[in-house]
Design goal:
The chain has about 70 residues and is an alpha+beta fold. It has helices spanning about 20-25, 50-60, and strands at about 5, 10, 30, 35-40, 40-45, 65. The structure holds iron/sulfur cluster. Its cofactor is [3Fe-4S] cluster.
Length: about 70
């Protein structure tokens, strides 16, 4: 079953394309043609449950943030 977009966002002003997000969690993130990270709208079927705290900590630029949930 497909899952909804993960509750994170990438600050476009901070992301410089280290690639740790999409290398550690390719089911949640992808790279554009500049190597910058983006959050997928839908989590891949075969993605392992995301450890978002670990992924957030892994970004050297602190560009990944939790989004507010209602
Ligand atoms: S790890 Fe951080 S800086 Fe690198 S691509 Fe992902 S969001 Fe951007």
């Amino acid at each position: 079953m497909r899952q909804q977009r993960p509750p994170v966002e990438i600050d476009r002003d901070l992301c410089v394309g280290h690639g740790r997000c999409y290398n550690k969690a390719p089911g949640l993130f992808y790279a554009d043609d500049m190597g910058l990270g983006h959050v997928k709208d839908v989590i891949d079927d075969n993605a392992t449950p995301p450890d978002l705290a670990r992924i957030i900590r892994a970004c050297p630029e602190s560009a990944i943030h939790l989004t507010a949930t209602s």
